[in-house]
Amino acid sequence: xxxxxxxxxxxxxxxxxxxxxxxxxxxxxxxxxxxxxxxxxxxxxxxxxxxxxxxxxxxxxxxxxxxxxxxxxxxxxxxxxxxxxxxxxxxxxxxxxxxxxxxxxxxxxxxxxxxxxxxxxxxxxxxxxxxxxxxxxxxxxxxxxxxxxxxxxxxxxxxxxxxxxxxxxxxxxxxxxxxxxxxxxxxxxxxxxxxxxxxxxxxxxxxxxxxxxxxxxxxxxxxxxxxxxxxxxxxxxxxxxxxxxxxxxxxxxxxxxxxxxxxxxxxxxxxxxxxxxxxxxxxxxxxxxxxxxxxxxxxxxxxxxxxxxxxxxxxxxxxxxxxxxxxxxxxxxxxxxxxxxxxxxxxxxxxxxxxxxxxxxxxxxxxxxxxxxxxxxxxxxxxxxxxxxxxxxxxxxxxxxxxxxxxxxxxxxxxxxxxxxxxxxxxxxxxxxxxxxxxxxxxxxxxxxxxxxxxxxxxxxxxxxx
Length: 466
Prior knowledge:
By secondary structure, the chain is mainly alpha-helical. It has 17 helices and no strands. Helix content is 68%, strand content 0%. The radius of gyration is 23 Å and the shape is globular.
């Protein structure tokens, strides 16, 4: 069921009712029965501070460790400019979609899922055939990507401890996936609030480690010679620039703003804005710190995951071993929490399909199927990550087709269609510009990502030990 009607309001000729009266509980006959996904997974019990934990976990994620790599084709000036502009645009877009959700909640129609609001504003076809598959692919693809990255981080720790070790990457992926399997059994999004508080602290920990490590290496003779020149022919550089812009945009990506706002206890007005402010205070410190220090230390040799640069060509750590271990362990732990958060749309979909809302949440009728299909979901994601260690290339395509429209294009479209600002107003044209520019970037970035897959295809092997 797409819509949760929190209340029904009567509007007479005198105007709107008081906001608080709108959120008063209506008689039972006026409420729409919830499906199991909304009832069990998207419980509306949280505070704005809990939402800030969820937002920080999903946005300030280990993908930000790729920001120095994104600076390589952009250079200093455009790298910083793109980082700042996309921070402002993402905050603006997230605020707009929260305003749209607040607006409908104010009038008694609270939408709990991205597809619900897309159904209402764009029509059921857009919700069913575009938003649902795109969001599912983005979120599940993110889970697969983070399981793979978790396995790679554990492998790095293992090889530094045991340089001649014989364990393969897929074995570490399975180890990380097994840990995810346990966390995936958390019953609801709201039940992750304390885990996501710890996750927010972990992201500060590994970002501090990454920044400090880059400054340490860059200030010593251990690091590479600093070279900020941009290599390659014109075509390669152009594609690399758009790919870098897409990497930065996807790093700010979330894809589940309505689901996070659904965890808020009513009334919801204004709560997401406070949560976004807390989240972006962390974003500013971590993103700028990692991007600038990483690019300064390693220049055009910055890798796709900056912690990889902490190992020299000979495999020896350029920072103290304990520091390298601490950086990677905090990254691994936070990867597991981010992966579980991005499992929530999949969990909600499975819960809605297989669970019985009339039975208790922890009844055997619902617990046994939940254990089976959530476990299968993680097992499948782990298998894909182990089989396709080049999934990062595929995720670039998913990010271009998924995160960019969900987080930059649809929110401004929703706002214009809901509030209908005048075509003479700057807000209308700002929103149109954001939608057009980021839609174009998404298309070009998708082409660049497909091109990269074609270039790398000859190196692809199933279960490769990379």
